[in-house]
């Protein structure tokens, strides 16, 4: 299953989420940002690749719906409600991500 994690600048939250799933046999994860200054910018190709799209805040979901209307309408976009107040691989951030995504990944 392909998981896409989206935040604003693709510096802390979404790369942390991607790293959590690195090496997983069951999931393939990528991350991107919605900001023009993002390390990796969200693209339609990335959205098409994803089976599930997780965004950190409601504004990210809205931005995806505005920029990629047709693709976004066909995809499940889940808001994790994780604020931009963590550094990369912060223990609390890792735990928050794991708890937030678990209900969508459990069989």
Describe the structure.
- The chain has one domain (2-105): Response regulator (Rossmann fold), CATH 3.40.50.
- The model has no long low-confidence stretch (mean pLDDT 96).
- The two termini are 12 Å apart.
- It is α/β, with parallel strands linked by helices and 107 residues long.
- Strand 1 (2-7), helix 1 (13-20) and strand 2 (28-33) form a beta-alpha-beta unit.
- It has helices at residues 13-20, 44-49, 58-67, 69-74, 91-105; strands spanning 2-7, 28-33, 52-55, 77-79.
- It has a 4-stranded parallel sheet with strand order 2-1-3-4.
Which properties best describe this structure?
4 strands; 5 helices; single chain; 4-stranded parallel sheet; alpha/beta; about 40% helix; about 110 residues; Rossmann fold
Give the helix/strand layout:
Layout: E1 2-7, H1 13-20, E2 28-33, H2 44-49, E3 52-55, H3 58-67, H4 69-74, E4 77-79, H5 91-105
Parallel strand pairs: 1-2, 1-3, 3-4
Q: What is the domain tally?
A: 1
Radius of gyration: 12 Å
The rounded distance between the terminal residues' Cα atoms is: 12 Å
Put simply, the count of helices is 5
Order of helices and strands: EHEHEHHEH
CATH architecture: 3-Layer(aba) Sandwich
CATH fold name, please? Rossmann fold
Low-confidence stretches: none
Helix share, percent:
40-55%
Oligomer: single chain
Structural class: alpha/beta
What best-fitting shape do the alpha-carbon axes yield?
globular
**The CATH superfamily title:** Response regulator
User: On the 0-100 scale, what is the average pLDDT?
Assistant: 96
